[in-house]
Structures are given as structure tokens and as C-alpha cells.
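Hey, resending since the last one bounced:
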Amino acid sequence: MTVTRKAKPTVQFVDEYCDSYRDLFVEVRSFEAFKRLHVGMVSKIKRKSLPAIAKVTGLRNPQSLQQFLVKSPWQAKALRHRRLELIRALLNGHKLVLVIDETGDRKKGHTTDYVKRQYIDNLGKVENGIVSVDACGVIDNITFPLTFEVYKPQECLNPGETYRSKPQIAVEMVQQLQDVGFAFDLVLVDSKYGERANCFVSLLRRLQLPYVLATRSNHVVGMPKKEQVRANNWWQYQDRFSHGKSENHFIREIVYGRRGSQQYWQLTTDKERLPKTSTWMITTWGANISYQHVGVLYGLKHWVQYGFKQGKDDLGWADFRFTNYGVIEKWWEVVMSAYLMVTLQTPSMQSEGTLPPELD
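The C-alpha cells again:
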């Protein structure tokens, strides 16, 4: 009888966290590579390339890490399912605020799956790159990585694949997350996932999920001819940023005719001049939200989106050098796993007596 040797230890908190995934890897060498990737991703090396991770984790070359991602018979979906199970167990039935966003990264050439010239949100312009639709959950300022899916432009579809828009992908994400047991009390989303895609907003209403939706400045609201538009008084609130600072902003409700279940709000940094670059319109539905809460929730969306993207970038989200999406998906899943590991190491999750009430 052959006895499987134990995996070589790395860093204690990495080993303890990764043990939850041990049974997903048939080969002990695969599990060791899985742990080494986590060590490398949370290390202080600037670029999380395989050669750099191999060096920082004591390997002579990155061959075993490459083998783990390209040929080892583990499944990205199984890793995602286990990670979501861990998050659900931690939440113990409590609801999250769901944030839907996208991540785009510049990529050279045309050989990588689903790379083309498209709008890259991170850059704010059209570039050659790859885009994913992402979902994360927030509770008491703690962000949990939930799921992602690559956006496949029509020109890049492989045989047998069907085109889906980003809002259609987001619709399926919400349904899948609910199917595996997640509950949400609010959805925060940008205009491209709601305003131009009735299917997404319709789903949220059907599921009775309140939402805060960024709205384009040229958004048109239909109403009877005899009805009028009125703007209520400005209220001041404090908006906070990811670096911890805050500043005074202003908010007012814009009422189109008779006030309905869907409400419209204008937010700005300067209520006198209404600068285009710092004045926003948002729409809310399904929640009795006060002026103060609308502003705070909209600020939370930006805070989470920036922090989530920055966290993934620091872990190496865009540092892959693969062209096959099946391998890229594995890389991204390991990044999401490392993100959760880092989340679990934050003081609010570690210090006894300081856990958020929802998670205690």
C-alpha cells in the first residue's frame, strides 16, 4: 500500500487556509503548487508572474506552477464552489450588499482568448484587452469575493458558444449566487448593467431585490404631459474614500411627476456650479432609503469597486501570461481564493471581540 506523503509546509496562515481545499487536488504536488501560488500572490513582489512567485517561494524554476495551472486535473468551478461554501458558512445566513462591476485589463496581441479592442473600464477608453464581469459582497465594510465571468465579444466566440451581453451575464450571476444560498438586501450597480438593459432591472424587481443604480446624465424619464419635474432641497452628507478620507457632498431628490417606487437623485460636490465631472444621477428602487443613506450607499459602491479592483491587482489578477481561457480562469480563481484568505486575516475578522455583529 502506497502512503501519500504530506504536503510541504509554507506559511502557517496559508497552510491553515488552504487545508480547506486539500481534497480538490488528487496529487500532493498540485496542492503544494496551490499553496505556493497563495504565498507568492500575498508576497511583496511587484509582478506576480510565475517566475517571480517561484523565486520568492524557494523553487528553482516555475515549471511545477505552470504544470499546476495548465495540466493538473483540478477544476476551477470546484475551487469556486468550495470558496463560496466557506463564505456562506462564515456569514451564517446573514445578507450581503451585492456589488456588480467589471474589470478590464490591457493585453497585447490577438492570440489570447476573448481579447479584442473594447472599452477597458480601468483605463476609461477603448484598448486591446480582456474584460470580466465581477460580483463581490459587502457586510460591515468587509468585502468578500464572490464570482466572475469573462465577457466574450461576438467576434471572439468559439464554435458552439452563444453571445451574452454583460447585463445578461450579471443576471445569471445573481441567480446562481441565490441558487447556492446567498441572500442580498441591496444591489449596487453601474448604469451599463441596468439602465440600458431592462432584463437586469426586471430580474432585480422580480426577485424583490432593492437596488441603487448609477444613471447617465442624459437619462430620459417618461411621464404624462401635465406632470412637472421638481427638485427638492439639497442635503449635505459626508462621502468617504478608500484611503480613509472624506469630504462634504450634496444630494437632492428629483421628482418626475408623481413620486413612485423608483426614485431619482442628484449628487454633487458643488451644489452651486454642478460640475460635470463630480455631479451624478442615481436611481433607487425597493428600499425606503433616506437622503443620508442614498449618498452613503453610492459612496460605498465606489469605495468597494476601487478597493476590490486594487486588491485583485495587488494579488496578480492581470499578471498571467496564458492565452487559453481555461487556464486564465484557473489563475483568476486562485487570485479570488487568495483575496478571501487576505480578507480572513484582517483585524476585524481575527481579533476576538471585534468581529462585526453579523459575523460573530
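The first strand starts at residue 96 and ends at 106.

Sorry for the duplicate.
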